């Protein structure tokens, strides 16, 4: 049966705008596109340690068999959540199947009717989708603009206010002034939630994230950590009070009405967290590569193209879907995997090349790709 005409028209519109999405083909190019910041997804030691852990503990099940509230809450969940809570100096930890599930579950369940959610205008789609499902009213504030945020807080200060931001934004790679934001939320007794998807494994002595490395983590309402990036596996966790965990278990629909992660998946999360304790050199190498990337783009005169960032995400603005796709293809033809980010994922005119830096990228590779970018642009 063919698609309805109105759906076919939507696809045609994407084609005409040169913004039709397609699944990429696996390649062996030099990786400047994945979120595998410290190489954990390819870690042979994590793979072997996970397998050994399952064997040693007599765990041979392939699946969770049901939701965690019915039959899927296998013992590895309690062990792993306890380890994560201690690692992050949090009162409690609740694992979700993905970062998307965590954000949708939290924002659809926690803010109530007559509450207000104030969110950064560049917040991730999963945050926005969760907010859309909420009964609370929501308003966006200008990106990292706390004067605009405070104006909105003062407007709604007689209600419960939830403020949400990201510690590193996925498309720009920049960060808000988190100390100032924490102080502002405390000043008005707001509930601050931060999405730390792109900081786990990147910031902190052992990759614990930005809020914890700044010693701000015990002054906020909740942290959302995602495992599919720096940790190299799958899933997510919400860190907060024991009361918040109990509430989410009872009311977060993306937690309640889904099959749990398999024992193997949860064991991989546990082992990956344990390995963070021993990977300080790898994390330092990532930070060194970020510094090298920033130095080289400045030396080559490319700085004006890039969004200011000190994270592993470096975005060069190349307006126009056709332009940025062509430039990405030129770099791929030279052996470097860099992806174009098209509108409508980003606003029209803000299309970009998104470079992801890794601990396993060599200085030579960083210099080569930036020299190619300069040659293709200038």
Summarize the amount of helix as a percent range: 40-55%
C-alpha termini separation: 49 Å
Question: Globular, elongated, flat, extended or rod-shaped: what is the shape?
Answer: globular
Cα Rg: 21 Å
Biggest pleated-sheet summary = 7 strands, mixed
Report the order of strands and helices. Answer: HEHHEHEHEHEHEHEEHHHHEHEEEH
Mean pLDDT across all amino acids: 96
Number of helices: 14
Strand content: 5-15%
Strand order of the largest sheet: 2-8-7-6-5-3-4
Low-confidence sequence ranges: none
User: What's the total count of β strands?
Assistant: 12
Structural class: alpha/beta
What is the fold's blueprint, element by element?
Layout: H1 5-16, E1 30-31, H2 44-56, H3 75-87, E2 92-96, H4 99-109, E3 116-120, H5 125-133, E4 137-141, H6 146-155, E5 161-166, H7 178-187, E6 191-195, H8 210-213, E7 222-226, E8 236-240, H9 242-251, H10 253-256, H11 263-276, H12 280-299, E9 313-317, H13 321-333, E10 336-337, E11 339-341, E12 352-356, H14 363-377
Parallel strand pairs: 1-10, 3-4, 3-5, 5-6, 6-7
Antiparallel strand pairs: 2-8, 7-8, 9-12, 11-12
Give me some keywords for this one.
three-stranded antiparallel beta sheet, alpha/beta, 378 residues, seven-stranded mixed beta sheet
Task: Explain how this protein is built.
The protein is α/β, with parallel strands linked by helices. It has helices spanning 5-16, 44-56, 75-87, 99-109, 125-133, 146-155, 178-187, 210-213, 242-251, 253-256, 263-276, 280-299, 321-333, 363-377, and strands at residues 30-31, 92-96, 116-120, 137-141, 161-166, 191-195, 222-226, 236-240, 313-317, 336-337, 339-341, 352-356. The strands form three sheets. The chain has a seven-stranded mixed β-sheet, with helices on both faces. The protein starts with a helix and ends with a helix.
């Amino acid at each position: 049966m063919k698609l309805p005409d109105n759906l076919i028209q939507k696809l045609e519109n994407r084609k005409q705008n040169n913004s039709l999405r397609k699944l990429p083909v696996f390649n062996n190019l030099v990786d400047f596109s994945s979120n595998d910041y410290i190489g954990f997804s390819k870690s042979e030691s994590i793979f072997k340690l996970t397998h050994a852990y399952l064997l040693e503990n007599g765990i041979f099940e392939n699946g969770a068999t049901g939701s965690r509230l019915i039959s899927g809450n296998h013992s590895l969940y309690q062990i792993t959540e306890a380890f994560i809570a201690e690692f992050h100096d949090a009162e409690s930890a609740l694992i979700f199947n993905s970062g998307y599930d965590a954000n949708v579950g939290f924002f659809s369940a926690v803010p109530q009717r007559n509450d207000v959610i104030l969110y950064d205008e560049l917040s991730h789609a999963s945050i926005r989708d969760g907010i859309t499902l909420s009964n609370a009213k929501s308003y966006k504030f200008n990106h990292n603009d706390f004067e605009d945020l405070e104006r909105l807080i003062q407007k709604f200060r007689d209600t419960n206010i939830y403020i949400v931001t990201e510690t590193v934004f996925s498309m720009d790679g920049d960060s808000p002034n988190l100390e100032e934001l924490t102080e502002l939320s405390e000043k008005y007794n707001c509930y601050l939630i931060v999405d730390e998807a792109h900081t786990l494994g990147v910031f902190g002595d052992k990759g614990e994230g930005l809020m914890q490395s700044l010693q701000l983590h015990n002054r906020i309402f909740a942290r959302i950590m995602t495992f599919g990036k720096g940790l190299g596996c799958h899933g997510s966790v919400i860190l907060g009070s024991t009361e918040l965990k109990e509430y989410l278990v009872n009311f977060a629909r993306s937690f309640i009405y889904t099959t749990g992660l398999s024992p193997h998946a949860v064991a991989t999360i546990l082992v990956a967290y344990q390995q963070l304790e021993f990977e300080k050199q790898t994390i330092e190498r990532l930070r060194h590569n970020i510094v090298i990337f920033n130095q080289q783009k400045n030396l080559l005169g490319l700085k004006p193209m890039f969004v200011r960032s000190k994270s592993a995400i470096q975005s060069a603005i190349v307006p126009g879907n056709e332009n940025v796709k062509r430039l990405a293809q030129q770099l791929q033809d030279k052996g470097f995997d860099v992806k174009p980010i098209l509108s409508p994922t980003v606003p029209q005119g803000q299309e970009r090349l998104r470079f992801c830096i890794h601990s396993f990228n060599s200085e030579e590779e960083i210099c080569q790709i930036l020299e190619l970018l300069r040659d293709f642009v200038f």
